[in-house]
């Protein structure tokens, strides 16, 4: 197995080099392409743009003053969509006070979970997106398995564009996680007769709690 | 997988007379074209993004070996495995071996054109694995046992009635007995059925829209979230990707993301953009225990060295299909293999052999719309012309066409003879077609006039008209 593997690698690289008119590897370092890609310009407040873009993409959003309001808003949301009072919550939100009657578990999502609550790493104004990084406290199944995904976004987490997200990640010194998710609305499909239908495989609803700066 | 691209004319005539297919094609391509145009108009940077994307791809292709090694080193550093396959067969063998080592039974799949290209489903099923496509469109055509007819919306040719019948047949044994007529019910039922598979699967196979050398990540975009469930819930995650999909940095990937969704479906962005890097970390609560990337060459390194290098910039968005008057008239199945439309007419002969798909490069009007909308500026009409030239040189072009082309070349290279022929021919044709303004029959050209009229010339040769025009001006 390992011999064939090594042979495959050598053959593909040799074929590439032959087409590039080279014999053997290039010993010079690759000179990076100069310049950067264009970053679309837009006016106005990044937070307001983020809100508008997420609503355009069928997410719902409520503005709250502080984390103290999360419990009440989550309770209101699950009552509206007639979901149960059992929540699968990211451990990063363990400090939140949940209203009486709610059952809260911190774990990866299971098939029977109806609602998850998670934090995010950043949010993007340009085209609307929420960025999450997987980790022991933030399993990525929370973003995909339950019907309802509630995300807490702090206004200060909203950046202009994706380049800003990467800059922030590099500055954080965090290692690359197994999964980076950029989420722009609830799951959707148009695969049958081009008819847009929400809730294909991932969450049917994406609900954002935007915490004021 | 052998291409039946040799039966193109028969497939075309079936497609053109299929009323349901024609309605579906009009509906789909019309929507994609309109939505894309609106978004492009709203983005002043679009042209600059295309230019940058082209430069990034050209830069990567010129340093492809180095970037692949850099990418591989990062994947390994993160605990993943990289496998290199020269051919489709090697790619299949590698994937079969991974599944065997994992003692897998059930395999879920996110949408991946490379996996279609290497024919992995048939190989896995022949080896006794249960394989389930999870993208709704791919799932539908898997039930129908058909290849995709579009690279972005693979079941675009299916009506809701046909989907309802397929679900009756395949879901009834699972206990879903209601006959469905509404799209929302069908999406919901597929959701329930596929949920069971995600949680049961041992191996999840996805594609990779981009491979990021900086971090060793593979990136996929989906609207449904199926790729994410596939790659997160299975024990083993396998990524299949062409060797040309590597980009240097995270920032470079963003340039392509800004172009991809706009060009593909006329969306600003797909719903889910996901980067996967290695297997789950020690303390993670979910994610796969193994992460494998299968880098597929299958003719790509050969394209790198010749006149078709620019084809390797392709990001598989499907804009060239949606804007192609030929594709939108005949649909994807007529092309006979997994890649249809302009990009398919270039790729199919290059991957399967130019003698295996004679008609594809010729089924093009050279109108150039594909090149105009291509997000990475691939000169598709020029590449199709080059394929025609190679067909002619290697004697694949049928004799009547060769003779006609040789006769035309002989005439066109002799100015005196050409002008004489035109001075005789043009007035003659003009008189013949005077009554109706068109010619419906011409000797030696029935191949043309059998199915359409030739507009009759107006009576003067171009040279005569030009001299008269010059004479009339001061």
In summary, what is this structure?
Chain A is an alpha/beta fold and 213 residues long. Chain A has helices at 2-19, 46-56, 70-80, 162-172; strands at residues 60-64, 86-89, 103-105, 115-118, 122-124, 129-133, 148-154, 158-159, 179-183, 188-189, 197-198, 205-211.
Tell me what the structure shows.
Chain A is of the alpha/beta class. Chain A has a single domain (44-211), classed as 3-Layer(aba) Sandwich (Rossmann fold), CATH 3.40.50. Chain A has helices spanning 2-19, 46-56, 70-80, 162-172, and strands at residues 60-64, 86-89, 103-105, 115-118, 122-124, 129-133, 148-154, 158-159, 179-183, 188-189, 197-198, 205-211. A six-stranded parallel beta sheet of chain A has the order 1-12-7-4-2-3, sandwiched between helices. In chain A, strands 8-5-6-9 form a four-stranded mixed beta sheet. In chain A, strand 5 and strand 6 (129-133) form a beta hairpin. Chain A is globular, with a radius of gyration of 22 Å. The mean pLDDT of chain A is 95. With 474 residues, chain B is of the alpha/beta class. Chain B has two domains: 8-301, NagB/RpiA/CoA transferase-like (Rossmann fold); 414-472, no CATH class. In chain B, 52% of the residues lie in helices and 11% in strands. Chain B is built from 23 helices and twelve strands. In chain B, the strands form three sheets. Chain B has a six-stranded parallel beta sheet with strand order 1-10-7-4-2-3, with helices on both faces. In chain B, strands 8-5-6-9 form a four-stranded mixed beta sheet. The chains are: A alpha/beta (213), B alpha/beta (474). At the A-B interface, helix 1, helix 4, strand 9 and strand 10 of A face helix 2, helix 3, helix 4, strand 1 and helix 5 of B. Strand 9 (179-183) of chain A pairs antiparallel with strand 9 of chain B, so a sheet runs across the interface.
């Amino acid at each position: 197995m390992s011999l064939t593997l090594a042979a495959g690698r050598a053959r593909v690289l040799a074929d590439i080099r032959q087409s590039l008119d080279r014999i053997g590897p290039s010993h010079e370092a690759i000179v990076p392409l100069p310049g950067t890609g264009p970053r679309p310009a837009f006016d106005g407040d990044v937070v307001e743009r983020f809100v508008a873009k997420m609503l355009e993409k069928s997410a719902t959003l409520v503005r709250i003053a502080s984390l103290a309001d999360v419990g009440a808003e989550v309770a209101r949301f699950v009552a509206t969509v007639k979901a149960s009072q059992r929540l699968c919550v990211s451990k990063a939100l363990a400090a939140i006070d949940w209203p009486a009657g709610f059952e809260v578990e911190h774990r990866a999502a299971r098939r029977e979970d109806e609602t998850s609550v998670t934090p995010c790493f950043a949010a993007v104004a340009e085209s609307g997106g929420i960025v999450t990084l997987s980790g022991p406290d933030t399993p990525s199944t929370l973003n995909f398995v339950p019907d309802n995904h509630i995300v807490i976004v702090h206004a200060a987490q909203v950046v202009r564009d994706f380049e800003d997200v990467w800059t922030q990640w590099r500055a954080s010194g965090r290692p690359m996680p197994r999964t980076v998710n950029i989420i722009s609305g609830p799951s959707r499909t148009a695969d049958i007769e081009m008819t847009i239908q929400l809730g294909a495989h991932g969450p049917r609803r994406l609900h954002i709690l935007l915490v004021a700066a | 997988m052998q291409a039946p691209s040799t039966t193109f004319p028969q497939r075309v005539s079936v497609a053109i007379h299929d009323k349901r297919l024609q309605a579906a094609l009009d509906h789909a391509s019309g929507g994609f074209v309109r939505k894309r145009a609106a978004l492009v108009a709203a983005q002043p940077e679009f042209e600059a993004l295309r230019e940058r994307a082209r430069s990034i791809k050209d830069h990567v292709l010129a340093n492809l070996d180095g970037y692949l090694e850099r990418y591989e080193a990062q994947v390994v550093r993160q605990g993943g495995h990289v496998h290199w396959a020269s051919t489709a067969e090697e790619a299949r063998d590698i994937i079969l071996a991974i599944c065997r080592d994992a003692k897998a039974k059930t395999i879920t799949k996110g949408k991946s054109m490379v996996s279609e290209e290497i024919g992995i489903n048939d190989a896995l099923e022949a080896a006794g694995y249960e394989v389930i496509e999870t993208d709704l469109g791919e799932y539908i055509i898997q039930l129908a046992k058909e290849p995709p007819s579009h690279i972005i919306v693979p079941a675009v040719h299916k009506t809701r009635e046909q989907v309802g019948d397929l679900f009756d047949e395949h879901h009834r044994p699972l206990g879903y007995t209601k006959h469905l007529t509404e799209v929302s019910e069908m999406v919901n039922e597929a959701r329930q059925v596929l949920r069971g598979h995600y949680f049961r699967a041992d191996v999840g196979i996805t594609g990779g829209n981009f491979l990021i050398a900086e971090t060793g990540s593979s990136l996929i975009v989906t609207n449904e979230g199926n790729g994410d469930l596939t790659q997160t819930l299975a024990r083993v995650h396998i990524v299949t990707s062409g060797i040309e999909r590597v980009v240097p940095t995270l920032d470079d990937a963003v340039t392509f993301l800004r172009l991809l969704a706009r060009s593909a479906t006329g969306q600003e962005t797909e719903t889910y953009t996901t980067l996967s890097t290695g297997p789950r970390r020690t303390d993670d609560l979910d994610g796969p225990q193994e992460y494998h990337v299968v880098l597929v060459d299958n003719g790509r390194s050969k394209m790198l060295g010749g006149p078709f290098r620019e084809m390797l910039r392709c990001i598989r968005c499907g804009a060239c299909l949606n804007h192609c008057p030929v594709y939108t008239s005949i649909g994807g199945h007529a092309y006979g293999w997994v890649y249809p439309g302009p990009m398919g007419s270039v790729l199919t002969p290059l991957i399967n052999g130019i003698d295996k798909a004679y008609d594809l490069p010729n089924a093009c009007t050279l109108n150039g719309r594909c090149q105009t909308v291509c997000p990475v500026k691939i000169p598709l009409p020029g590449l199709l012309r080059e394929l025609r030239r190679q067909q002619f040189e290697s004697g694949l072009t049928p004799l009547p066409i060769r003779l006609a082309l040789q006769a035309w070349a002989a005439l066109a290279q002799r100015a005196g003879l050409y002008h004489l022929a035109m001075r005789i021919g043009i007035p003659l044709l003009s008189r013949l077609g005077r009554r109706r303004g068109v010619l419906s029959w011409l000797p030696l050209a029935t191949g043309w006039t059998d199915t359409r009229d030739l507009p009759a010339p107006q009576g003067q040769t171009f040279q005569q008209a030009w001299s008269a025009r010059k004479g009339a001006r001061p």
